[in-house]
Amino acid sequence: MEEASNIHNNYKDPRGVGVTLRVKDKKLHTRDGNFSFVYRANISQIFEDGSEQQPSQLVALKQTIVPRVRDFRELHILRCLSVRHPHPNIVKLMYYRRRKYSSDATYSLVFEFVPATLAQLRTEYHKNKNVLDIKLCIWQLFTGLDHLRKLHIIHRDIKPANLLVNSTTGRLTIADFGSAIYLAPYTDRFQGTYAVTRFYRPPEFILGAARYNCMSDIWSGGCIFAELYLGEALFQGNDAFWQLQLIYTKLGTPSIDDLKDMHVRECDFIPAVVSQAVYPFRELFLIFEKLKYPADKNPASLIVKILDLNPKKRLNGRRLLFDEFFDELFQPGKIRKGGGLVTDAISLEEQKLVFGTEV
């Protein structure tokens, strides 16, 4: 017989409406930092008449300890993205709960369970040359990032481990908004640049930018774009200084105008001499040549435009999503490596959100 403690009447849906849930088969799935744990569990809603949702649903249950003096920003952002501004490539909050203690509070966030991350699938995609699946993931990633940009939300930790992929449908969703912040519509002023996992950290963060905006996420996305074809992270510095040197080696050093647009003040990492990379990302150009891309349409050129040192010049939004590199995804009846249709991941309605009504 199941214990009564498995029944919880203090959960709420994203709109704030109270619900009663039965939580069972709860097992630790992964640990996210020092204060967050992600469990997998089965839940079912118990209705007012005593009936219970059948069958139960497999979910991811994230529990985070937050000091009571702090506002739990992640919950506010997730509720906004789940109720007012949902998007197919952004994780959707199902339920949440807050439990108060003397000095802190524990938040429980419930999401649909997706077992695979892009970090886990990267090796498989690269080894099996799943070019269409890679292209599909990249397009969905930048579609989701463009949605966040329009809402003035910076994720600040875009990396393969935070991108969930449904292996059956090919659907990619951006998850883990624990580092995310709101960007006020008319200012990009923020304190603190110690964010974003090092391999995906934009140069303005490493240089201690006084201000930054959603283009920092675009840099991280560009690093992932390259990584999926390389089979490993593009910039693998052991520390911030070495990370910056690797970036300079491939892209050259920022000009004075670039530094102004990066809002960089005094920093020991700024080189005394400005130089330009002679042949940025040569290894990427060679990889795409082996994939039979013509020289004048080599996708490495697209990555170079995304990974511009100057945040204001980074290719993003519709100009990126409309690039001919992605045209293959929208050919009728296009089939992924695993046998599913591309439209299983990108429906016609979702295409209209990006391209307009004429799709």
Automatic annotation (TrEMBL):
<dbReference type="GO" id="GO:0030154">
    <property type="term" value="P:cell differentiation"/>
</dbReference>
<keyword id="KW-0547">Nucleotide-binding</keyword>
<dbReference type="InterPro" id="IPR050591">
    <property type="entry name" value="GSK-3"/>
</dbReference>
<keyword id="KW-0067">ATP-binding</keyword>
<dbReference type="GO" id="GO:0070507">
    <property type="term" value="P:regulation of microtubule cytoskeleton organization"/>
</dbReference>
<comment type="similarity">
    <text>Belongs to the protein kinase superfamily. CMGC Ser/Thr protein kinase family. GSK-3 subfamily.</text>
</comment>
<dbReference type="InterPro" id="IPR011009">
    <property type="entry name" value="Kinase-like_dom_sf"/>
</dbReference>
<feature type="domain" description="Protein kinase">
    <location>
        <begin position="24"/>
        <end position="326"/>
    </location>
</feature>
<dbReference type="InterPro" id="IPR008271">
    <property type="entry name" value="Ser/Thr_kinase_AS"/>
</dbReference>
<dbReference type="GO" id="GO:0005524">
    <property type="term" value="F:ATP binding"/>
</dbReference>
<dbReference type="GO" id="GO:0030424">
    <property type="term" value="C:axon"/>
</dbReference>
<keyword id="KW-0723">Serine/threonine-protein kinase</keyword>
<dbReference type="InterPro" id="IPR000719">
    <property type="entry name" value="Prot_kinase_dom"/>
</dbReference>
<dbReference type="GO" id="GO:0004674">
    <property type="term" value="F:protein serine/threonine kinase activity"/>
</dbReference>
<keyword id="KW-0418">Kinase</keyword>
<dbReference type="Pfam" id="PF00069">
    <property type="entry name" value="Pkinase"/>
</dbReference>
<keyword id="KW-0808">Transferase</keyword>
<dbReference type="GO" id="GO:0032436">
    <property type="term" value="P:positive regulation of proteasomal ubiquitin-dependent protein catabolic process"/>
</dbReference>
<protein>
    <recommendedName>
        <fullName>Protein kinase domain-containing protein</fullName>
    </recommendedName>
</protein>
<dbReference type="GO" id="GO:0007165">
    <property type="term" value="P:signal transduction"/>
</dbReference>
<dbReference type="GO" id="GO:0005829">
    <property type="term" value="C:cytosol"/>
</dbReference>
<dbReference type="GO" id="GO:0090090">
    <property type="term" value="P:negative regulation of canonical Wnt signaling pathway"/>
</dbReference>
<dbReference type="GO" id="GO:0005634">
    <property type="term" value="C:nucleus"/>
</dbReference>
